[in-house]
Design a protein that fits this description.
Low-confidence stretches: none
Number of helices: 15
Subcellular location: Cytoplasm
Mean pLDDT: 93
Family: Belongs to the class-II aminoacyl-tRNA synthetase family.
Main location: cytoplasm
CATH architecture of the largest domain: 2-Layer Sandwich
CATH class of the largest domain: Alpha Beta
Shape: elongated
Bound molecules: zinc ion
Subunit structure: Homodimer.
EC number: 6.1.1.21
Strand order of the largest sheet: 1-5-6-11-10-9-7-8
Helix content: 25-40%
Strand content: 15-25%
Radius of gyration: 28 Å
Largest sheet: 8 strands, mixed
CATH superfamily of the largest domain: Bira Bifunctional Protein, Domain 2
Structural class: alpha+beta
Distance between the termini: 46 Å
CATH topology of the largest domain: BirA Bifunctional Protein, domain 2
Length: 408
């Protein structure tokens, strides 16, 4: 056993897992660019208060799941548990609102949460997040959900998109009251955590995973029945846009999300295979203002890269690998050929070993070469290469000049 192990919940990503990781990341990033999102690189560390103020003091994330520490001057800092809080902080600090009527940003990177590690869940995990600041138009909500749908389609992942509206400052208080009253009646069926939530944050009881709680809230009042006129119109318009865009979705009246800052539209993509949430987002129309910026409606979502990677079945075909094997005193010519191949954009490996042809071909197989390029004294003298297809066994000789004309 190795002397050192990685920290629990922190893991190395490499090989096939990394290929899937990059495939997910590249697919999402290229799509975000088509929707005119601009990248921003945000720090991994923020002042603790940034998360306390935005995510909410009584959320699981802030109370139990953050990596919090003091720096040498005694200031409280935290590793970011999610990306939106930092994006909002950056939007305000850099006065991005002064630049454009609305701002579309995306970021990618590690997030940290002190949770119990399980399949696809790590304490350091990676997200790509997208945020749109400055518009309340339900078209944007529809577009965000359309992007989620496109990401899933492009990656060949079957998932159900769930949507809900959780109202605004005007309509949510009366719903919270109605829900609290209802929960009072079923109090005997609630788990300890929900007994605590019932008064502080009753909405969270709706998405408790404990069976008795799930059963207890089945008849609970629904937020959609309490929406004010503005929220109701927003929600209905969003649904009509999703229909126009032919985006399949399911209304989940218990979808509330675990963070305090959401308003109106919330949505999630839930894997049909594993039942876990792989993309999640929503509107947060007051957060910029609550964090000291100008009143700015906003909406965002985050893609869990590890979680989606677990569901990716097929990767696109890799570029074929060429393995160049020089024999005898041909290294000078081999270097020329290798350079030419790489200039042509080919993926090239070299044999660093001196061995006979049989051993070299075995090595090429181990390295999963698709072609071997054999270079001997004859090839060097005649300015040719011998190229062998490792899948079919077909072998042919071509001139360096032909190679230069990109015959491959
Ligand atoms: Zn409302
Ligand atoms: Zn519960």
């Amino acid at each position: 056993m190795a002397e050192f192990q990685s920290v629990r919940g922190f893991h190395d990503i490499f090989g096939q897992e990394l290929k899937k990781f990059r495939y997910v990341s590249d697919t999402v990033r290229s799509l975000l660019k088509l929707y005119n999102f601009e990248e921003i690189i945000l720090p991994v560390v923020e002042y603790l208060e940034v998360f306390q103020r935005s995510i909410g003091e009584v959320t699981d994330i802030v109370q139990k799941e953050m990596f919090v520490f003091q720096d040498r001057k005694g200031r409280w800092l935290a590793l970011r548990p999610e990306g939106t809080a930092g994006a909002v902080r950056a939007y305000i600090q850099n006065r991005l609102y002064a630049l454009k009527p609305y701002v579309k940003l995306f970021y990618e990177g590690p997030m940290f949460r002190y949770e119990r590690p399980q399949a696809g869940r790590y304490r350091q995990f990676h997200q790509i997040g997208a945020e749109v600041f400055g518009t309340l138009d339900p078209q944007v909500d529809a577009q965000m959900i359309e992007m989620v749908h496109t990401i899933l389609t492009k990656l060949g992942i079957s998932a159900t998109i769930e949507i809900n509206s959780i109202g605004c400052r005007v309509c949510r208080p009366s719903y919270k009251k109605a829900l609290s009253d209802y929960l009072e009646d079923v109090v005997g069926h609630l788990c300890d955590v929900c007994l605590d939530r019932k008064d502080k944050n009753p909405l969270r009881v709706l998405d408790c995973k404990v069976e008795t709680c799930k059963e207890a809230v089945k008849q609970a009042p629904k937020m959609v029945d309490y929406l004010c006129q503005e929220c109701a119109t927003h929600y209905e318009t969003l649904k009509s846009y999703l229909d126009m865009l032919s985006i399949p979705y399911r209304e989940n009246h218990h979808l509330v999300r675990g963070l305090d800052y959401y308003t109106k539209t919330v949505f999630e993509a839930v894997s049909d295979e594993l039942g876990i949430t792989i993309i999640a987002g929503g509107r947060y129309d007051y957060l910029v203002e609550e964090m000291g910026g100008p009143p700015t409606p906003a909406i965002g979502f985050a893609v869990g890269i590890e979680r989606i990677s677990m569901l990716v079945k097929d990767l696109p075909q890799e570029e074929p690998l060429y393995m160049v094997i020089p024999f005898g005193d041909t290294l000078d010519y081999a270097f020329e050929v290798i350079k030419k191949l790489r200039d042509m954009g080919k993926r090239v490996e070299t044999s660093y070993k001196k061995a006979n042809l049989k051993k070299q071909l075995e090595l090429a197989n181990k390295l999963k070469a698709d072609y071997v390029v054999l270079i001997g004294e004859d090839e060097k003298r005649q300015n040719t290469i011998t190229i062998k297809n490792m899948h079919t066994g077909m072998q042919e000789s071509i001139s360096f000049l032909e190679l230069a004309h990109e015959r491959l």
